[in-house]
Amino acid sequence: EVQLVQSGAEVxxxxxxxxxxxxxxxxxxxxxxxxxxxxxxxxxxxxxxxIYPGDSDTSYSPSFQGQVTISADKSIxxxxxxxxxxxxxxxxxxxxxxxxxxxxxxxxxxxTLVTVSS
Amino acid sequence: FMLTQPHSxxxxxxxxxxxxxxxSSGSIASNFVQWFRQRPGxxxxxxxxxxxxxxSGVPDxxxxxxxxxxxxxxxxxSGLQTDDEADYYCHSYDSxxxxxxxxxTRLTVL
Lengths: 118, 110
Fold this sequence. Notes:
heterodimer; B: 0% helix; 45% strand
């Protein structure tokens, strides 16, 4: 069974750094793209960026380029989303999702709530 | 590019509703469109992929189409049930590997 299990909720202060994770199981982690999707409170889905764990090729939405870093450690089947200096506006639920070549995302993590507040 | 959806739609049980998704630039036919359903407190799930295909478990009351003349995609749900109430998002991508979700449509089944 394919599963994406994300790390738990985080509460951080503005300016702090953070790295959240998404661990895949039940499939060959190296060979499927993993995307990150943001959902701000009461708002819609926003595509953040994507990584191919096999060679760490990444692509970012222009809106998020330079604001976050996506990485992966294929030895432990885990993808990451990190911030070097959080802002209150980063408060959101972040989902990881596995992508098919056609563009579909049939598998999603449960979401990680990130709260940034002073 | 952007994908524009109506903010909300509503219809009565048993009726048919259509949600539109208009692509701002580039051809809607150039890249597949997906539709995701999100219920409160849950992760999104696919109801339509590759423009018009249904995953197993999604009833045939759900259908997807694209219209090149209006550069838009549509999700149609027939025989509406109260359980269909949710937020629906279209999604597509471009040749630069940039992907976009539509703003989402809140479906209310009155």
